[in-house]
Amino acid sequence: MDGHFVPNLSMGPAVCGAVHKAIPEAILDVHLMVTDPAAYIEPFAKAGAAHITFHIEVVRDPAPLIASIHARGLSAGLAINPDTPAEAIFPWLDAVDLALVMSVHPGFSGQSFISSVLPKTKAIRERARPGLRIQMDGGVAPDTAPACRAHGCDLVVAASAIFGKSDYRAAIAALRA
């Protein structure tokens, strides 16, 4: 997060690099919520990221960024905000490895899940080639994760549902149930 595309600031390449150094076998999935994602691809690639997702709302033509990410040996993803129609990423579904649907307005953890985004994941799944990963991020909890899966998501991102609990293992098990 850059304080421009979203009003908050968050972890940068240095934190990614520290995590990669501490846990080199971990797959680091970077979600860029920034106005200029091109400026962050190389630093995160050098820091050990395995995957980079950026928002369709900040680029006119995502093809060069997708190619830049792939050229560095990383997988690439496109994200859409809750108010952006699924159709905005349809032209690039064959070029990316992941489609990310935001189920909150990006920028702050702890927001409530916006269930009206669920039809977007279903629409993306219906248009997607086999193997495309579909991810939901925002407000995902044990009570919302089943609907995400039922609408075509195979990956969910959870923060408060895990880190807001004292027993992380139980919280993760509840999300997977």
Descriptive account of the structure:
There is one protein chain. The protein is 33% helix and 16% strand. It has helices at 13-22, 38-47, 63-71, 118-127, 145-150, 160-163, 168-176; strands spanning 29-32, 51-55, 75-80, 98-102, 133-137, 155-157. It has a 6-stranded parallel β-sheet with strand order 1-2-3-4-5-6. Helix 5 links the parallel strand 5 and strand 6. The model has no long low-confidence stretch (mean pLDDT 91).
- Could you give the order of the helices and strands? HEHEHEEHEHEHH
CATH class assignment: Alpha Beta
> Which architecture per CATH?
Alpha-Beta Barrel
How far is the N terminus from the C terminus? 31 Å
Arithmetic mean of pLDDT: 91
Residue ranges: pLDDT <50 for 5 or more in a row?
none
What structural category do the secondary elements indicate?
A: alpha/beta
Number of domains: 1
Shape: globular
The CATH H-level superfamily is Aldolase class I
CATH fold field value: TIM Barrel
Continuous helix count: 7
Major sheet description = 6 strands, parallel
Widest beta sheet: strand line-up: 1-2-3-4-5-6
- Helix content percent band: 25-40%
Query: What is the percentage of strand-forming residues?
Result: 15-25%
Q: How many β-strand runs?
A: 6
- Give me the Rg, rounded: 16 Å
Topology (elements, then pairings):
Layout: H1 13-22, E1 29-32, H2 38-47, E2 51-55, H3 63-71, E3 75-80, E4 98-102, H4 118-127, E5 133-137, H5 145-150, E6 155-157, H6 160-163, H7 168-176
Parallel strand pairs: 1-2, 2-3, 3-4, 4-5, 5-6
